[in-house]
Amino acid sequence: MRTVYDIVHVLQVERGNSAGFIGSKGAQMGDSLAKARVATDQRIADLQSVGEALGPVGNAEITKALANAGEALRRLEAVRGTIDSFAISTGDALGYYTGAIADLSRIGGGIVKATENRDTAMNLAAYVDIMGAKEIAGVERGMGAGGIAAGTFSLPAFEAFAAKKGAQEALIARFFDLASDDVSATSRVLYGDGAGADVEAMRLAILDGGNYGKLSSLDAGTWFAAMTEWLGTLGAMGAAVSDRIIADAAAASSAAETQLTIVAAIALGLFAAIALSIVLVVRSIVRPISGLSGLLRRMADGEFDIEPAQRGRRHGGLGGDPSRGPAGKKRAGRRARSRPSCKR
């Protein structure tokens, strides 16, 4: 999931630089745009690994979002060409990047729905919210850079810009509600007073004169840098909850391995008990057969007056000493009578 939002982050940076570049007709942000494109290209290659990792989940929403994001990113080079030639408006360029980012963000929503553990699902939902706030801040950064560079905002752009701060605050509030207590506490320290005094001052300047072309006191690069710092704060809050999700997943994996070890030990114990039972049963069968074979050999030698020992006697079992049984005593008596007398 973090990989997805790493891709989102570089697209947000490229979007903001593109807006400033178009708005200034190439006079500003050209170098930073070139660097942003390199970073984006490096990250886009990771999308394939995301698809491979999430494929076994079998979630239809994730599959659709991956397909849509892939399709949007395949159009990236063509869109870049229209930006370089100023054949696309700032609004349309922002719309393209925002649409691609929305498709990537929907992957996170699918992951939340596919998660069964409640605490993990809550933290995942918090992560999606804070990354959503970061995305809106990224749009605000791009719109602000474009309008400042151009010296004015169109009415639709001005109205959209004015709504960005409130949208961010709503998602951030929900993030604090959903995140686990430790993550929420850490993130509140990171959040501090919000976007900071510099951003707030420039927001007010844009709202006061953006629709009337009164932006000469503002610089697109300064605005972009200040907003980038604010996006970094939101990213750090996202990292805090992401680290917690990863730690919980590792703990769950360890617990599953321990449980598997216990089950294996129990299974081995059962197998050993079964094997011992089989040995005892085989011995109970083999020992009488062994005694019986001895009797059969004696009968083959012509000795027919044989009484098998009764089961349970002290001399018992078919393998007992026949001379100690009743038949053995009779034979002993006959032998004694048949002996010649030694008396004179």
Q: How does this structure look, described?
A:
The chain is elongated, with a radius of gyration of 42 Å. It has 344 residues and is mainly α. It has twelve helices and no strands. Residues 259-264 and 312-320 have low confidence and may be disordered. The protein is 78% helix and 0% strand.
Characteristic terms for this protein:
single chain; 344 residues; mainly alpha; 12 helices; 0% strand; elongated
**Low-confidence parts lasting 5 or more residues at pLDDT below 50?**
259-264, 312-320
Shape: elongated
Instruction: Give the overall average pLDDT.
Output: 78
Provide the gyration radius in Å: 42 Å
Structural class: mainly alpha
Element pattern in H and E? HHHHHHHHHHHH
Strand content: under 5%
Helix content: over 70%
Largest sheet: none
Count of helix runs? 12
Number of strands: 0
Task: Briefly characterize the structure.
Helix content is 78%, strand content 0%. By secondary structure, the chain is mainly alpha-helical. Helix 9 packs antiparallel against helix 11 (220-300).
Architecture blueprint of SSEs:
Layout: H1 2-23, H2 30-44, H3 47-54, H4 60-74, H5 76-84, H6 90-113, H7 118-150, H8 155-178, H9 181-191, H10 197-209, H11 220-300, H12 326-338
